[in-house]
Amino acid sequence: MQLIKDKQIVDDNWQDLADDAELAAGDISVSLSRWQTEKAQLLAHEGQLGIRISPADSVADFAADLDKIALVELDFPDFADGRLFSHAWLLRSRYGFQGEIRATGHYMPDQVFYLARVGVNAFKPATAEQLPVQLGYLQDFTVTYQDSVN
């Protein structure tokens, strides 16, 4: 599958591992709970590491490990929960995270511009047909009134 990263359509080389799945070779993303329980084993893994977080998770719970993490996936369970916007902003502004922050799940395509303003630099839509549409939404506005992290 492809995704949008840094305003370009690129191949997704990451594997999302379920909590009960065996470790796979390559770049992997795991839930925050798996990270917390298997951190030592995951750090020995060859390949880059990513963490998937939900709105109820706290960025502070893994902030000390950000130097070991290349990807933070914001998993939107539904359209109505905006806490992941705050998580992205905290990752960039408070904790200085320079890696990839990726929106996944049920975010609305017209939210991509605003997600980019708080630090999200990658978007994984549900279908490949949405890629050019969401890429277009990143160009919605050319003038902004507020400062942002991007």
Description of the molecule:
With 150 residues, the protein is α/β, with parallel strands linked by helices. The protein has a single domain, classed as Alpha-Beta Barrel (TIM Barrel). It is built from four helices and eight strands; from the N terminus they run E-E-E-E-H-E-E-H-E-H-E-H. It has helices at 32-43, 83-94, 112-117, 131-137, and strands spanning 2-5, 8-11, 15-16, 28-31, 49-53, 71-76, 100-105, 122-123. An eight-stranded mixed sheet has the order 2-1-8-7-6-5-4-3. Strand 4, helix 1 (32-43) and strand 5 form a beta-alpha-beta unit. It is globular, with a radius of gyration of 15 Å.
Question: What descriptors fit this protein?
Answer:
150 residues; 4 helices; UCP030820; Oxidoreductase; globular; alpha/beta
Quick gist of this model?
With 150 residues, the protein is of the alpha/beta class.
Write the layout of secondary structure elements.
Elements: E1 2-5, E2 8-11, E3 15-16, E4 28-31, H1 32-43, E5 49-53, E6 71-76, H2 83-94, E7 100-105, H3 112-117, E8 122-123, H4 131-137
Parallel strand pairs: 3-4, 4-5, 5-6, 6-7, 7-8
Antiparallel strand pairs: 1-2, 1-8
Protein name: Oxidoreductase
InterPro entries: UCP030820 (IPR008318)
Strand order across the largest sheet: 2-1-8-7-6-5-4-3
Please report which band the strand proportion falls in: under 5%, 5-15%, 15-25%, 25-35%, 35-45% or over 45%. 15-25%
CATH class type:
Alpha Beta
Specify the helix fraction band.
Answer: 10-25%
- Overall pLDDT metric: 90
Terminal-residue CA separation: 26 Å
Largest sheet: 8 strands, mixed
Helix tally equals 4
Overall number of domains: 1
Give the CATH topology: TIM Barrel
CA radius of gyration: 15 Å
CATH second-level architecture = Alpha-Beta Barrel
- Based on Cα principal axes, name the global outline: globular
Unreliable stretches: none
- What order do the helices and strands follow? EEEEHEEHEHEH
Number of strands: 8
Pfam family, one: DUF934
Organism: Methylovulum psychrotolerans
Protein name: Oxidoreductase
